[in-house]
Amino acid sequence: MKAILLDDNEMAKWDEFIMSTPGGAFSNLSGWRKVYDTYGFKSFPIAAINDTGIIRGVLPLFLMRDIFGKKFLVSNPFLSYGGLCAVDEKAKIALIQKAKETAIINHVEYLEIRQLADIVTDLPEKKDFVTMVLKLEKDENLIWNKALTSVARNRIRKAFKANLVVDFGRQYLHDFYRVFSVNMRDLGTPVFPISFFESIFEEFRDVVDLIVVKHQDVVIGAMLFIHFRNVCLDPWVSSLKNYNQFCPGDLLYWEAIKKALMQDAEYFDFGRSTINSGTYRFKKKWGAYPVQLNYQYFLNKACNIPVVNANNNKYQLAINIWKRLPLIIANTIGPRLIKYLPEL
């Protein structure tokens, strides 16, 4: 067993492995290499192959720099997980060794592998996050009556009483981005460029859709919806706070769950949260349960595992300033900054 860097013309084999291997995730797909070309991230598609040249494991890595120019490698910078995918321990060991060598050669501070499961190595790890997952019943009524709390049901009813309208389709990309960029500014977070989402639709057109909620023909909430294998997920979702009284976010999630059922998905992944945070409690009311995320590190030049805490005073100051920026300025500066902020 050995680990190598695959060439561009071998990416079809990479994706075939992801599609046929338990644990292969949307965030492991080779198309992310082109998506991250938006930022100029250099990619390192590491594959473990056996003596006959058959792929037995993969680990996608991307070379990034922080705002001070320090370099690091991360398995998927802007998604919660999607690191190592392998069929056995020999493949895992080979992938980790090659990843360490890649980190050393490129003089990075550290290597970060974001996992939905333990890699089972001696690498130090951080367990600050969970992803919230709903096991989907086959019957919509069972989810409504058993999974959802009364609070969630009442808020969905409120959305319907407000005559909110739901629609689907890529044609709403600019509406999605308008809502998303306002929400990110209000949260104090730099926004992705719209080209990032355009690239996602271009690379993953068969599994990506948009769900929107409209009030009087104006889009007030939107979700980027993904269906890959037996899982549906919503990596980016936003609604306008001026319309919170109509509960557009709750209606978005209910329609996403219904869409997942129609597509015969087994799970709906609500995304990353910290235990007992506001987003954690929101997702829990939908019947979602926490699944531990394991972020593991090879510390090359760094002495400690990196920590980004939004409650830290220095970050809180920046967040408060960002919230006050005019939208046109936030949308101009944000896409230039976000590539330095993989934790966000």
TrEMBL record:
InterPro entries for this protein: Acyl_CoA_acyltransferase (IPR016181), BioF2-like_GNAT_dom (IPR038740), PEP-CTERM_FemAB-rel (IPR017469), PG_Glycine_Bridge_Synth (IPR050644)
Residues in BioF2-like acetyltransferase domain copies: 152-284
Recorded superkingdom: Bacteria
Pfam family, one: Acetyltransf_6
Protein's UniProt name: FemAB family PEP-CTERM system-associated protein
